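Supplementary Text 2. Reproducibility record for the structural model of the 506-residue chain.

All settings were left at their defaults, and a single model was retained for analysis rather than an ensemble. We include the record here because the model underlies the residue-level annotations in Supplementary Table 4.
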Amino acid sequence: MVVEGSMTQGAGQGPEVRTATLRDFRVPAYVYEGVRETGRGDAEASDTAEASAEQVVGQRGAAQEAGLGQVAGQGHVAAQGQASASAAGQVSPAAGRAPVGGQAPVGGQAPHTGHAPAPVHHAPQAPTRLAAHVPAQAGPVERPGAATPAPVQPQQPSAPRPMEQPGPAHPVAHAAPARPTAQNAPAHPGSAGETPEGYTPTERSLPIINRGDTVQVEVREMPEPPPAPDADGMGPLYVVGDVHGYLDELVAALAAEGIIDEDGNWSAGNTRLWFLGDFTDRGPDGIGVIDLVMRLSAEAAAAGGYCKALMGNHELLLIGAKRFGDTPVNSGAGTATFQAAWLLNGGQKTDMERLEDHHLQWMARLDAIEEEDGHLLVHSDTTAYLDYGDSIEAVNDSIREALTRNDADECWDLFRKFTKRFAFRDDSGPAAVRELLDMYGGTRIVHGHSPIPYLLGEVGSEYDGDDDGRPVIEGPHVYADGLAIAMDGGVTMAGKLLVCQLPLRN
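Retained model, structure tokens:
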């Protein structure tokens, strides 16, 4: 007997109350009970074999512990309520020891009551969740000091599975519990047993998709976008002279050339269209003209062509009037203002009222000079472009930078230079044209600004409504030894708004 509170135990003697060790926490055989009806026989045989092995190991342990009778594995629960010692037909010598605290008899052995208990068969139960401990099997409890029950020979289970006897190498070896095979294991992934072939461990079973179950689609490389067409692949080139707010005349002239349809939409495909400037002033709807040109630019680009515009002296005048108003500027003739000059040159109050920021931004970004198919396109018939750069790019950049600086005097000087005219009309005209062509390229210069009636000397002022003095304009005017083409048909003096294809046919 161990003294209470003692720190040592006798040789081979266990404590009265023992804490379960790792070997006690094995999966009880009844977990596999009733997993499937078809596997019940195998499970029973496995449990019986396990109980027999347990009994043998317990006896050997008791002998090695000097016959003190404490069997290792106390608290282990036998499956299906059967006596684990019944398979071997022997009773542990320590069976007479009274269990402590209501523990079940060692090895699951039932107490002797004078006759052999019959084997108990339970109905199959659903597998239960494995707990951290194994509960003791319910049954009669032996009282301390009770008589030792006589050995009882229990009934042998039918057709027990042969069991391999444990060897002497390890006195505490335990027989591993039998596990259901893949044929007996349920399909649920939480059940014991090996998973079926091809099973995906998800919450619900998903079908296995084989190569033949899907549609095989050939993936082809995306073709590279076609290169942008060069000048040779573009459509015909058209130019438009000064419009000066005459929107209806512009629509009629564009429709006559097939550039727009009856609804005013772009219908010319990859045609190239250039406006030579002066969209506002003198006519009734300058802002309407700007809106039309901006819209056609987007539609032409979507169709593979383009619609572009140059800056005229009247765009510079409208920008200055809006930005500077009555701010005095230095001019060669004295003090002047953009507002006064704008009104003097046909400025329309309705245009100013409808002028918005996006109109101003669009005008301020326009180029002043361009070259297309050997034609040097400008607005004014002047050599003032030479003052702003020795290349087309330099001229356009210099003018945009001057407008960006927003200096009233600098903008006025720019407007004044591009208001000059008739540089190509006199005897010195061909030389002036060649100077520009030599600097910027091209074989002919195409301009607006100066109305053809002015160049011909037929009128010296705006049309006054007299039919006898009305100029007759049939088309562009070619002069300066054939080096210059004038495109302002004098629409402000009851002339003609010109839209012509280049090169000229005759």
